[in-house]
Amino acid sequence: EVRLVESGGDLVRPGGSLRLSCAASGFTFSNHWISWVRQAPGKGLEWVALINQDGSEQYYVDSVKGRFTISRDNVRNSVSLQMNSLGGDDTAVYFCARDGGRAAEDCWGQGTLVTVSS
Amino acid sequence: QMTQSPSSLSASVGDRVTITCRSSQTVRRYLNWYQQKPGKVPKLLIHGVSNLQSGVPSRFSGSGSGTDFTLTISSLQPEDFAIYYCQQSFITRTFGQGTKVEIK
């Protein structure tokens, strides 16, 4: 079974940092691009970051450039999102999602909640 | 930028429903559609404009090219009441703002 499981979400103060992880199983992890997508409470989906199969390419939405870093470990079958200088606008459920090879996210984790508040 | 219309709609079971997605620049055929039910994870419905994801009912269809795209549900079923998002994957990723399909 293809599975993605996020972890690391927490309550963090403005200006703080947090590292999210996404553990993959049930497929050949190193063959797939992986995205982080977030959803603020009651709002729509926002793509955040994308990493290619070997980790040599990373892409970010403008609002997180310079603050967030996506990385992957193809030995541990995991992707991470390091988030620094967090603000209230970063409060959201963060999903990791797999590109199934057709430039579309065909498998999603259940999400992990990040709350930025003092 | 991806713009969906309408933002919400009310429809009855059995209705034909059409949702439109417009991109600010061409995305060629890199246009996908997702369905999200309350409290659930997004589900891929259609990739590459018109390709039905495995397991998705045939009442869902997609069309369009370039900058203008459409998701059609030919006969709305009770389980189809949800929020639908378009997504371009030509240049990284961008989602539309979503279209909420509600029961009339």
Structural notes for this entry:
The complex is a heterodimer of chains A (118) and B (104). Chain A is mainly β and 118 residues long. Chain A has no helices and eleven strands. The radius of gyration of chain A is 13 Å and the shape is globular. The mean pLDDT of chain A is 98. With 104 residues, chain B is mostly beta strands. The model of chain B has no long low-confidence stretch (mean pLDDT 97). Chain A binds chain B through residues 35, 37, 44-47, 50, 59, 61, 95, 97, 99-100, 102-106, 108-111, and chain B through 30, 32, 34, 36, 41-44, 47-48, 51, 53, 83, 85, 87, 89-90, 92-98.
What topology does this entry show?
The complex is a heterodimer of chains A (118) and B (104).
Chain A lengths: L2 E5 L3 E2 L5 E8 L8 E6 L5 E7 L6 E3 L7 E6 L4 E6 L8 E8 L5 E4 L3 E5 L2
Parallel strand pairs in A: 2-11
Antiparallel strand pairs in A: 1-3, 3-8, 4-5, 4-9, 5-6, 7-8, 9-10, 9-11
Chain B lengths: L1 E4 L2 E4 L5 E7 L7 E6 L6 E5 L3 E2 L7 E6 L2 E6 L9 E6 L5 E2 L3 E5 L1
Parallel strand pairs in B: 2-11
Antiparallel strand pairs in B: 1-3, 3-8, 4-5, 4-9, 5-6, 7-8, 9-10, 9-11
Which class best fits the helix and strand makeup of chain B? mainly beta
Query: What's the average pLDDT of chain A?
Result: 98
Share of helical residues of chain B: under 10%
Number of helices of chain B: 0
Class inferred from helices and paired strands of chain A: mainly beta
Strand content of chain A: over 45%
The CA-CA distance between the termini of chain B, in Å, is: 30 Å
Order of helices and strands of chain A: EEEEEEEEEEE
Low-confidence stretches of chain A: none
Shape of chain A: globular
Number of strands of chain A: 11
Spans of chain B of 5+ residues with little confidence (pLDDT < 50)?
A: none
Largest interface: A-B, 22 and 24 residues
Profile the largest sheet of chain B. 7 strands, mixed
Radius of gyration of chain A equals 13 Å
Largest sheet of chain A: 7 strands, mixed
Overall radius of gyration of chain B: 13 Å
Question: Tally the helices of chain A: what do you get?
Answer: 0
